[in-house]
Design brief:
It is a single chain. This protein is α+β, with helices and mostly antiparallel strands and about 160 residues long. It is built from 3 helices and 7 strands. The protein has a single domain, classed as Pleckstrin-homology domain (PH domain)/Phosphotyrosine-binding domain (PTB) (PH-domain like, Roll). The strands form 2 sheets. The protein has a 4-stranded antiparallel sheet with strand order 1-2-3-4, with helices on one face. Helix 1 packs antiparallel against helix 2.
């Protein structure tokens, strides 16, 4: 099964554009009207925090479970063709998956995979799944559940 959230890219770019235009508009309005002189800093601070928060949430997610290797990729949505500074890529075989958990915070969702490496140690890998549609997330969950059950049966036998 293969799924991703590439259709969200246009929405994310639009939100970035609106936030930046809103910031420029506020700067010119506050400067020309001499209104809210005392609270201008706090308005821009709030806008900056909203931009940073949205930047941390906005991410590309790809899951591919076709074949014996499972591939999970996370990377940023903006400027990824030029600067790939937020990429997190994990490839593992089906029998290495020990468990997984989907953590749902208020504005952020993450997928935590528990992978057993070849030395027998277990490592946790986190992926941002905030902008993945509920239907696609359900398919990823079903696929991972199936692998975990198969691995438990092999371990018991």
């Amino acid at each position: 099964m293969r799924t991703d959230n590439r259709k969200v890219k246009n929405t994310v770019i639009s939100i970035y554009f609106v936030l930046i235009v809103f910031g420029i508009l506020l700067a010119t309005v506050f400067k020309s009207l001499d209104m809210f002189v005392d609270s201008t800093f706090f308005v821009f601070l709030g806008l900056f925090i909203a931009l940073v928060l949205f930047h941390s949430i906005a991410g590309y997610f790809e899951y591919d479970s076709d074949g014996n290797k499972i591939t999970v990729i996370n990377k940023g949505l903006i400027l990824t063709e030029y600067i790939n500074y937020r990429q997190n890529k994990l490839e593992f075989t089906r029998n290495q998956l020990v468990g997984f958990k989907i953590k749902n915070y208020i504005i952020y969702k993450s997928l935590v995979l528990l992978i057993k490496n070849y030395e027998g140690r277990q490592t946790k890998e986190r992926f941002n799944i905030t902008l993945v549609k509920r239907k696609n997330l359900k398919y990823v969950k079903q696929s991972l559940n199936k692998m975990v059950k198969e691995n438990r049966k092999k371990k018991q036998a």
